[in-house]
């Protein structure tokens, strides 16, 4: 499944989650319908620091509508960390990073190998 877009409501929710959890990180699983990212599933215990959140990806459910993951970077650097690059391939194909200060453009999508991936924001 190629992911071509993200629902505006989901993006707003992710930015809000970033703000609410700051200075901690949040992380969750993104589910898609028809190639559009539509839904966030939080995993128990994933709220934490950048170096601790990835552990919980091993507990994620496997289903065909999992597009990938989303998590926040309270340091505002919207690039995958070394830890991110090691868990992305285990967690799906597309990964969102939301960064401080969590405004409209403070996010990016990356493929599992860390390459930027353009997404259309769909109302
Ligand atoms: Zn990260």
UniProtKB/TrEMBL annotation:
The keyword Protease applies. InterPro entries: JAB_dom_prok. It comes from Methanoregula formicica (strain DSM 22288 / NBRC 105244 / SMSP). Transmembrane segments: none annotated. GO terms for molecular function: metal ion binding; metallopeptidase activity. This is Putative metal-dependent protease of the PAD1/JAB1 superfamily. Keywords: Hydrolase, Metal-binding, Metalloprotease, Protease, Zinc. Pfam families: Prok-JAB (PF14464). The keyword Protein biosynthesis does not apply. Gene3D superfamilies: Cytidine Deaminase, domain 2. It comes from the Archaea. Residues 8-109 form the JAB domain. GO terms for biological process: proteolysis.
């Amino acid at each position: 499944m190629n992911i071509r877009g993200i629902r505006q409501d989901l993006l707003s929710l992710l930015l809000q989650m970033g703000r609410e959890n700051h200075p901690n990180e949040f992380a969750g699983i993104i589910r898609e319908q028809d190639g559009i990212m539509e839904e966030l599933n939080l995993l128990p215990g994933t709220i934490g620091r950048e170096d601790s959140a990835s552990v919980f990806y091993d507990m994620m459910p496997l289903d065909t509508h999992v597009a990938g993951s989303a998590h926040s970077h309270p340091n505002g650097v919207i690039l995958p960390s070394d830890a991110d690059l090691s868990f992305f391939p285990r967690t799906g194909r597309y990964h969102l990073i939301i960064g401080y200060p969590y405004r409209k453009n403070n996010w990016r999508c990356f493929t599992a190998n860390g390459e930027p991936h353009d997404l259309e924001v769909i109302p």
